[in-house]
Automatic annotation (TrEMBL):
Domain of life: Eukaryota
Pfam families in the cross-refs: DTC, zf-C3HC4
Reaction catalysed by this enzyme: S-ubiquitinyl-[E2 ubiquitin-conjugating enzyme]-L-cysteine + [acceptor protein]-L-lysine = [E2 ubiquitin-conjugating enzyme]-L-cysteine + N(6)-ubiquitinyl-[acceptor protein]-L-lysine
Keyword Transferase (UniProt): yes
Protein name: E3 ubiquitin-protein ligase
Keywords recorded for this protein, A-Z: Cytoplasm, Metal-binding, Transferase, Zinc, Zinc-finger
PANTHER family: DELTEX-RELATED
GO cellular component: cytoplasm
C-alpha cells in the first residue's frame, strides 16, 4: 500500500510543472481574462491595453500592481508661483551650511472640474518652507520645482487644521514650514527628512 501511494504521488504534476502549464494561459491582473493587445510596462507587469488605459484614466500613469510610475503625473494644483532664495543662517542639524527658503503663492480662484466642487471658489495661500543649502538640499529643491511644474505640491480640498472646505492644501509631499521645533512642529532637526521627502517625490514619478 505504501509503495502504491508513492507511485501515485509521483504521477502528480509538481508545483513548477503547474506554474509552467499556467503560463500558457496568462491573464490580465485587472480583468482576469486572457490578454487582449497585451502591453508590458517598464516594471515588467503586463495588462490588456484597454484595461491599462482605463486604470490610467482613474489613477494616473501608475502600475496597478506595484505602483511604479510609468509616465508623467499631472496634478490639479491651481495656478501659482514658486520662488526661492538663500540666507546665511543655518538649520538645526545643518550647522555647516546656510538655508534655502522656498516661497509658494497660490491665488484664490474658482474650482475646475478636477476639484471637489467645480464652479465654487477656493481660498489661496502663501506658504514658506526651508531646506539646508547643501548638495542634498539643492537636489530636493530641484525635485520640488519639477513637482510644482507638474502641479503636484498643492491641491484643493478641506483644510486638515480648520476643517474648512474649498482651501488650497498640501498634497502629500511634506515640507518643513518651520526652521526649528523638530518634526512635531514641522521643523528641524529631523535627520531623515530629506530622504523621506525624496521617497514621497519618487512615488509621484519625480526622481
Amino acid at each position: 500500500m505504501t509503495h502504491s501511494n508513492r507511485m501515485h504521488n509521483t504521477d502528480r504534476p509538481t508545483d513548477s510543472e503547474t506554474r509552467s502549464g499556467d503560463q500558457k494561459d496568462e491573464r490580465c491582473p485587472i480583468c482576469l481574462d486572457p490578454f487582449k493587445n497585451k502591453k508590458q510596462l517598464k516594471c515588467k507587469h503586463e495588462f490588456c491595453k484597454d484595461c491599462l488605459r482605463q486604470a490610467q484614466e482613474a489613477t494616473g500613469p501608475i502600475c496597478p500592481v506595484c505602483r511604479v510610475v510609468f509616465g508623467k503625473i499631472i496634478g490639479d494644483q491651481p495656478d501659482g508661483r514658486m520662488s526661492d532664495y538663500t540666507m546665511p543662517s543655518f538649520l538645526p542639524g545643518f550647522s555647516d551650511c546656510g538655508t534655502i527658503v522656498i516661497n509658494y503663492e497660490i491665488q484664490s480662484g474658482i474650482q475646475t472640474e478636477k476639484h471637489p466642487n467645480p464652479g465654487w471658489p477656493y481660498s489661496g495661500i502663501h506658504r514658506r518652507a526651508y531646506l539646508p543649502n547643501n548638495k542634498e538640499g539643492n537636489e530636493v529643491l530641484q525635485l520640488l520645482k519639477r513637482a510644482f511644474q507638474q502641479r503636484l505640491i498643492f491641491t484643493v480640498g478641506t483644510s486638515r487644521t480648520t476643517g474648512i472646505e474649498g482651501q488650497v492644501t498640501w498634497n502629500d509631499i511634506h515640507h518643513k514650514t518651520s526652521m526649528f521645533g523638530g518634526p512635531d512642529r514641522f521643523g528641524y532637526p529631523d535627520p531623515k527628512y530629506l530622504s523621506r521627502v525624496k521617497e514621497e517625490l519618487k512615488a509621484k514619478g519625480i526622481e
